[in-house]
Design a protein that fits this description.
With 232 residues, this protein is mainly alpha-helical. The chain has 11 helices and 3 strands. A 3-stranded antiparallel sheet has the order 1-2-3. The radius of gyration is 22 Å and the shape is globular.
Length: 232
């Protein structure tokens, strides 16, 4: 086989650090856009303390929407950084799934603005929840491909990456369920504050429901642990 044929059949991989830098840029811009979408006081609203206080109270839902969306993007950024720190090279699939991940992140300021101005509107709540569900779902798939097929950094723990993927998948299901329930009551968004609990307990449930993949590093680790237990 010639060198050209060898390179043609070689697996395509991508630098995890460059992908991490791109994700950092998109998430930073998305967080900035969240602030821009908040309405500013103008004219008579700035003439007195009472008028300004009344304006701020009227816009309280926008501030709440900002805090919720900021928490979502911060959480995604933090966990993505942890993933990149544990990966040297990404395969084509894990790199490609960054596209919907960053797409949903960049789109989030739009439904956040609508939700902030109409927290009692079923469609606004549903669209916001669907966007967050898509964001966490894409994140879960990126991690799933990463622990299965990416080139991990020395000392990286595949089991930890898979656990993080399960947590992200649980949050995606949680927000998808809230998008459906929004048509029964738009105030379902109060439950969004419980997303960390969904990640913790839902992730554990998903981990219990699916067995380790045969031939995976995690499966080998489980076998070694079970052997050690039987010997002990």
């Amino acid at each position: 086989m010639t060198s050209q044929e060898t390179s043609r059949h070689a697996p395509v991989d991508f630098s995890a650090q460059r992908m991490g830098a791109s994700a950092d840029a998109v998430l930073a811009i998305a967080i900035t856009l969240l602030v821009i979408e908040i309405k500013r006081p103008e004219g008579d609203q700035l003439h007195s303390t009472h008028a300004l206080a009344e304006f701020l109270w009227q816009e309280k839902a926008s501030f709440l929407a900002f805090v919720l969306a900021f928490g979502v993007l911060w959480s995604v950024w933090r966990r993505h950084h942890m993933l990149i720190d544990n990966v040297d090279r990404l395969d084509r699939a894990s790199a490609s799934w960054h596209a919907p991940l960053l797409l949903f992140a960049a789109f989030l300021p739009f439904p956040t603005a609508m939700f902030g101005h109409a927290p009692g509107n079923e469609l606004a709540v549903c669209l916001d929840a669907l966007t967050v569900a898509g964001l966490f779902g894409s994140e879960a798939i990126v991690k799933e491909f990463a622990w299965r097929r990416a080139t991990l950094a020395p000392g990286a723990d595949p089991a930890q990456i898979r656990t993080s993927a399960d947590g992200s998948a649980a949050v995606a299901v949680f927000f998808l369920a809230s998008a459906i329930l929004a048509w029964l009551t738009p105030w379902v968004w109060f439950a969004w504050f419980a997303a960390p609990l969904a990640a913790h307990f839902g992730g554990k449930l998903i981990a219990r429901l699916r067995p380790p993949r045969r031939g995976s590093p995690l499966c080998s680790a489980v076998k070694i642990a079970r052997r050690a237990e039987s010997v002990g």
